[in-house]
Amino acid sequence: MDTTEKQGKQEDKLDVLFRMQAGLDAYIREKRELDFTKGEWVCKKALALIVELGEVVDEAKYKWWKNNTEIDDAKLKEEIVDVLHFFLGMCIDSGMTSDELFDIYLKKNKENYDRQNGLSQKTGYEINKK
């Protein structure tokens, strides 16, 4: 059975990712007998995410001072998925659900468009009229 199918219904892919990540995190915590506070988990995963982002940058061949080589798309995508693992873990550890992530993303995305269009209440995004 496809991992996104539940009783004949298509399950939301973001819900599937959250569930899978929560399961992996619980497995690792139990297997390695790890016990940290919410804040400690979020900080540890943020640090791991930063390290994984460094690996993404490395796979993307950021070193302009070296001979140019082809990017290995499979390795690059794998590193991006590693970033997602830790991002999802931070969401879960902070108590965020997939629905909350979706809703907060929608609000923030609208705000980002508003900022670019000079419609935000935040300062520094005013449109310069010539």
Cα shape: extended
- Give the C-alpha Rg: 19 Å
**Overall mean confidence score, pLDDT:** 93
Overall domain count: 1
CATH superfamily: MazG-like
Largest sheet: 2 strands, antiparallel
Strand order of the largest sheet: 1-2
Counting helices, strands and paired strands, the structural category is mainly alpha
Write down how many β-strands occur, each being a DSSP E stretch of 2 or more residues.
Answer: 2
How many helices?
A: 4
Low-confidence stretches: none
Topology pattern, helix = H, strand = E: EEHHHH
- CATH topology, which one? Helix Hairpins
Instruction: Provide the β-strand percentage band.
Output: under 5%
CATH class: Mainly Alpha
Question: How would you portray this structure in words?
Answer:
The chain has 130 residues and is mainly alpha-helical. It has a single domain, classed as Helix Hairpins, CATH 1.10.287. It is 62% helix and 3% strand. It has 4 helices and 2 strands. The chain has a two-stranded antiparallel ribbon with strand order 1-2. α1 packs across α3 and α2 runs antiparallel to α3. The longest helix is centred in the middle third of the chain and has 22 residues. The chain starts with a strand and ends in a 14-residue tail after the last helix. 7% of the residues are buried.
What is the structure about, briefly put?
With 130 residues, this protein is mostly helical. The protein has helices spanning 13-31, 38-59, 73-93, 98-116; strands spanning 5-6, 9-10.
Which terms would index this structure?
single chain; Helix Hairpins; mainly alpha; 130 residues
